[in-house]
Amino acid sequence: MSLLVLLGTVVGANLLNRTANATDSLLEGVQPAQTEAYRLQSAMVNQETGIRGYAITADKRFLKPYTEGKKNESESAARLRRLVADRPELREDLTVVERQAAQWRLNYAEPLVASVTPGKPKAVDLRTVEGGKEDFDRLRTSWAKQNAHMTQVVADGRAHIAHERTLRNSVLVAMVAAFLLTGLVLAVFVRMLVTRPLERLRTASRRVAGGDFEHVIGSGGPADLTAVADDVEGMRKRIVAELDASHAQQRILSTQAADLDAQAVELRRSNVELEQFAYVASHDLQEPLRKVASFCQLLEKRYHDNLDDRGRQYIDFAVDGAKRMQVLINDLLTFSRVGRLTDDRVPVGLDKALEKAMMNLATAVEESGARVERPSEMPEVVGDPTLFAMLWQNLVGNALKFRHPDRAPQVTVTCEPAPDEPGSVQVSVADNGIGIPGEFADKVFVIFQRLHSRDAYGGTGIGLALCKKIVEHHGGRIWLDTEYTGGTRFHFTLPVATAPDETGTPSEEKALT
User: Is 221 left (phi over 0), alpha (psi -120 to 50) or beta?
Assistant: First the structure.
């Protein structure tokens, strides 16, 4: 097709060039030459008219057409010679006309001008007039011949243009027919060599896509289609292999899922039993402890006078141990019930939960002279209001408990979007207390882990472990800022509450559950 287009372009350009040349030759050469021939003849007629008038009137004004005619004749002849330079017959006609015109002037015009005295008209010799007439008649005959040749050349030029246009149109029609025929042949070839193999490949691919994975996809047609068919067949084989492996893996996963379901049922049953056991154990353990503490106190009261200082000290140790055991049991029970006994999922304002915690810590804040800086507004999160109040109470309470002995407690609460967790908020609680060394950043969140003796700071060491469990239960994380040197600073993140979906359940709640 490219060769045909190239050939058609060359042929078409050649035909257009030939038509243009023929047209230019006629419009810029022959027809202007014919016009110049008429001008040349008109100039000679003006000469003949002027010389006759001068001979009759002896008035020099009649010589003006003669002199201007000679000038115009010379100019027209020069232009005409340039225009017919490539046509020998027309150049010959011009030469004859110029020679006869020169002979007429030599034999008639010039002698006549010389014989006339300006201002003195006289009778003209008839023989001179007749002689000049014969010469001019021969000149008119040459003009007729020249005009006939010019007319013939114009006719030939027009016939040549018509021939070239006919040839051009015929060839262009033939080229269009050749293009159409070639396009038809190419369409047939494309249909046979490309479309049909593509249809076979499409049919085979749809058959495989319909579930017949064992159907082999054959190849055929041009090399490109064969390569595509081979690639599709390779893909089919890979899919079959992966599908077999997937089925085998699915069978394994089904077996594992059944085992996990059974284990989950057993785990739920075990958790229920453990929760019941913890509740019962806490009550059953607290009752003997209360009795031990009560009887020890009665023993001290009744036999106070009979006991020495060491005996009374032993009784105090027993009472204090029983009370600490009760506190430990209650804290452990509280820790185990996070997310189990109450699991409300409602929008909770962090500022409202902090306000509730500050009301519970009002006495400690007043006694320590602490100053708490907090944001005027914090976003809502989804969770249990009681647990969030407990979270704030433990974090702010620790800042008040572990304060520096030389300065009043300063607690700063900040809240901003979490930089690495879109859709979450990052809350910071910083104080100016005694601080926590960086090597204990993980240990402080372990239950019952203490960094100080009980004599220095009271408590059971369960507060930060409870905070970690509450934050993680609500889909966040908590950590100690080891780079903070002005005291202690904890960071924790929580997903913010969003608008309820179509089911009426907040999206964060759905994500957590």
Answer: left
- Nearest by Cα to 476 from 491, 498, 461: 491
First-to-last C-alpha distance (Å) of the chain: 68
pLDDT of residue 283: 59
- With DSSP H G I counted as helix, E B as strand and the rest as coil, what are the percentages for the chain, rounded to 5? 70, 10, 20
* CA distances in angstroms from 221 to 7, 206, 207, 215, 233, listed in the order given: 30, 19, 20, 19, 15
| CA gap 129, 126 in Å, rounded | 5
CA distance 62 to 56: 10
Tokens read off for 231 = 């690639």
Model pLDDT, residue 62: 79
Strand 371-373 to 410-417 pairing: parallel
Place of tokens 């002896």: 58
pLDDT given at position 509: 41
Q: How far apart are CA 255 and CA 263, in angstroms?
A: 12
Low-confidence ranges of the chain (pLDDT < 70): 119-132, 271-287, 289, 291, 320-344, 447-461, 499-513
Look up the pTM and report it.
0.41
* Residues 6 or more apart whose Cβ sits within 8 Å of residue 36: 76, 79, 80, 83
The pLDDT assigned to 510 comes to 38
Strands 424-431 and 410-417: antiparallel
Q: What is the pLDDT of residue 142?
A: 86
Amino acid, res. 78: A
User: What is residue 456's predicted lDDT score, i.e. its pLDDT?
Assistant: 52
Grouping H, G, I as helix, E, B as strand and the rest as coil, residue 476 is: coil
Q: Is 212 exposed, middle or buried (0-12, 13-18, 19+ CB in 10 A)?
A: exposed
Superfamily (CATH) of domain 345-512: Histidine kinase-like ATPase, C-terminal domain (3.30.565.10)
What's the pLDDT score for residue 513? Answer: 35
As a three-state string, the secondary structure of 364-409 is HHHHHCCEEECCCCCCEEEECHHHHHHHHHHHHHHHHHCCCCCCCC
Contacts of 329 (CB under 8 A, 6+ apart): 282, 285, 286, 289
Q: What is the pLDDT of residue 500?
A: 44
Walk across the sheet containing 477-480 and list its strands: 371-373, 410-417, 424-431, 488-495, 477-480
Query: How confident is the model at residue 225, as a pLDDT?
Result: 76
H or E element: which one contains 488? strand 488-495
Domain borders along the chain are 2-183, 345-512
Q: In this predicted structure, what is the pLDDT of residue 498?
A: 72
